[in-house]
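Figure S7 source data.
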Amino acid sequence: MNLRRDREALEARELRELAPYAMKARESRGRRHGENEHPYRTAYQRDRDRIVHSAAFRRLEYKTQVFVNSFGDDYRTRLTHTMEVAQISRTAARALGLNEDLTEAIALAHDLGHGPFGHTGEDALRDLMKGHGGFEHNRHALRILDELERKYPNFQGLNLTQEVRDSLLKHGKRQLCLEAQVVDACDRITYNAHDVDDGLAAGILDAEALTATALWRESSEVVTRRWPGLDAGRRRYHAVRTLIDGAVTDLLDASSARIAEAAPRNAEEARAASRRLVGPSPAMEVKQAELARHLHTHLYNEYRVQRMRRKAARFVAEMWKTLVEDSAQLPPSARAGVEQYGLETAVCDYLAGMTDREALREYRRLFLPGDGPRFE
Ligand code: MG
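Tokens for the predicted magnesium ion complex:
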């Protein structure tokens, strides 16, 4: 007896169990290059698996979120950030009756386009690429997924479904499906919470000063009430946990109220709604903005974090200029792109693909005497 549930059974279950406004794998707008469907994975499960098996995904491990690796091993990297976003997004998607597989695929792909050294690296590349097509991490993620990952015999890129590709074009005209809206909202909840956690752990943020923000004050008060006398480490953990829980609960309540009001009959109507249906309540929006402002002032602009960021931006800019001025120094893998995309874009792709660690190594190879060549 074969007990395997094949793809058709999974697709039928989606139609039966998901909300009418959820995306269903069977209703996907498909892939750019035609492919046969998989026997026992839906289109979105396959997208998720392709992302996890990509080189760009593995590189997230050595890419900065806020702290570069040299700060220590306990801080978030882009990989652990991505996993936290995926986990929180899946919970929210499931609670709203949305497509959990699509949500997970979108979450796992959402930060693939970041270059080395986080937003600092992105700012540097954006300045350098002015007049050469620009640089923006969401657009670059799509470029990685459509062009730069090369492993399939019949096409470039990973050939993901249109729904996952659309989710990366957040700034385009097209509205996002609700699954992508979930990831967007949960990304913000996640980084606000873990940046507080990491900032406190690093001793850069001050727990007392943080109580000036409503979100931290309220979370801390809950912990004090429930577990008086808890040590500082456990207090921090439970306050962060309470903060995430409160934000997700608010997201679910506010979103289901908005969805109920708009009453979309299918995913297309939900996407086309005049405003985003998934998002925090106005009160939570204000509180999140307040916390974000505190983080900007006391964490992202703290002098040690700033030094690290400026240094990183300088690295990236020096390497880009050197390689654009003298492309003979480009390794063959990167030189192949020069003819296809132009020199500046090929150098940008080469640098944007690097992890923090690899960018530092490359900097030493390019500029410091005594650092050996790289052998491909
Ligand atoms: Mg993110």
